[in-house]
Amino acid sequence: MKRLKIKALISIGMLSSISYILMLLNFPLPPFPNFLMIDFSDIPAIIAALIFGPMAGVLVELFKNILDYFMTGSATGVPVGHTANFIAGTIFVLSTHFIFLKLKSKKGMTFALVGASIIMAILMSILNYFVILPAYTFFLNVPAMSAPDTRQMVVSAILPFNLVKGLIVTGMFMIIYVRLHSWIGKQATYKI
């Protein structure tokens, strides 16, 4: 039991480091605003969740954002963007994990990832409208966007971006998962 805990802690630390490095390799997509960046840092968190359980995936999301905040900082002085990234990643990882619990197959994993992308896009749109965008304007000390402008930003940028990001991450994860699914199954200490 003690060996298992040590293995889990070391693995979560390693996956968090990989996730942080992947977070640094972010890039914008041309039709979206430059502050919305694509990265593949959720992939190690999904792997952690599949092997060690959902809390491991959440910890990888947390540690990568803490590392990034302390290494790169934040334009607002407080981790509003990092908090948003943590929430989005956590929603994506947990949704994937719990949908996959019901559909244990490669097709089930694809369905879980696509479903998680949709769930994340919807929930992050709501959170951006009510919490995250107002927090940015507050901490940057700039005039608040009007409700129609905020709605326009969420509908035309935030919602489609999160959906596209989730689908891109889905594609990349499935390429990895097809090759590693039997290894992940053998390593799993959390029985799915």
UniProtKB/TrEMBL annotation:
InterPro entries the record matches: ECF_trnsprt_substrate-spec, RibU
Subcellular location: Cell membrane
Pfam families xrefs: ECF_trnsprt (PF12822)
Membrane topology classification: Multi-pass membrane protein
GO terms under cellular component: plasma membrane
Listed GO MF terms: riboflavin transmembrane transporter activity
First-listed, main subcellular location of the protein, grouped into a coarse class: membrane
Protein name: Riboflavin transporter
Membrane-crossing segments per the record: 6-25, 45-63, 83-101, 113-137, 157-178
Gene3D superfamilies (UniProt xref): 1.10.1760.20
Family affiliation: Belongs to the prokaryotic riboflavin transporter (P-RFT) (TC 2.A.87) family.
Origin superkingdom: Bacteria
Keyword set includes Zinc: no
Function: Probably a riboflavin-binding protein that interacts with the energy-coupling factor (ECF) ABC-transporter complex.
Signal sequence residues: none
Keywords attached to this entry: Cell membrane, Membrane, Transmembrane, Transmembrane helix, Transport
Organism ancestry: Bacteria, Bacillati, Bacillota, Bacilli, Bacillales
Encoding gene per record: fmnP
